[in-house]
Design brief:
mainly alpha; 8 helices; 187 residues; globular
């Protein structure tokens, strides 16, 4: 069995953050509805670029893209920004529930997603999965608080300058756990 081709981490970061940056810029210039359309187009472009580079569609990216297209489409069609504001909540809840469900089934799903990049003990994968599941539940709640209590412009800015740094910081905070449970000795 051959290993799956992985995107360069910097390319992956660009494909993940690029549409969000475009969303932020277009929102500042033309408003939330134009930004939503630009975001939808950028997500499709990022998905196509990812496919061209690795010859497959990453599951999490596809799920996110589908939710962006559905909720972005509803936002534009109904001219109601509530739908695009709900999208992060739904994605975070979906990821949290899938990870928690995997734990209940005694299969830490993070090990399936990241196994080719990291090689952890079963206990390491279990703890990491619990942590990420809880993190996604917190992020869903935080999105709800921000979009329901702040302006649309603040919410758009927080998506880029709040959620992204929080995710990076949380991921960095997991490195000691991953190093402790690394079976390959590469961390």
């Amino acid at each position: 069995m051959t290993a799956k081709t992985q995107l360069n981490p910097f390319v992956k970061l660009g494909l993940d953050i690029g549409p969000l940056l475009l969303f932020f810029v277009v929102n500042a210039k033309a408003g939330i509805f134009a930004a939503t359309g630009a975001f939808m187009a950028a997500v499709v472009v990022a998905l196509v670029v990812s496919y061209v580079m690795i010859r497959r569609f990453p599951v999490m990216t596809v799920v996110s893209a589908i939710i962006v297209m559905v909720f972005g489409g509803l936002t534009i069609f109904l001219h109601d920004d509530t739908f695009i504001k709900l999208k992060p909540t739904l994605i975070y809840l979906l990821f949290a529930l899938v990870l928690a469900g995997g734990l209940i089934m005694r299969k830490p799903l993070l090990s399936v997603v990241f196994d080719s990049m990291f090689h952890l003990t079963d206990e390491g994968w279990r703890i990491l999965t619990i942590r990420w599941s809880l993190f996604f539940f917190v992020m869903a709640a935080l999105n709800e608080i921000v979009w329901r209590t702040q302006t649309t412009d603040f919410w758009v800015s927080f998506k880029l300058f709040g959620f992204v740094p929080l995710t990076f910081l949380f991921a960095l905070a997991q490195l000691p756990l991953m190093k402790k449970h690394d079976v390959s000795g590469t961390l």
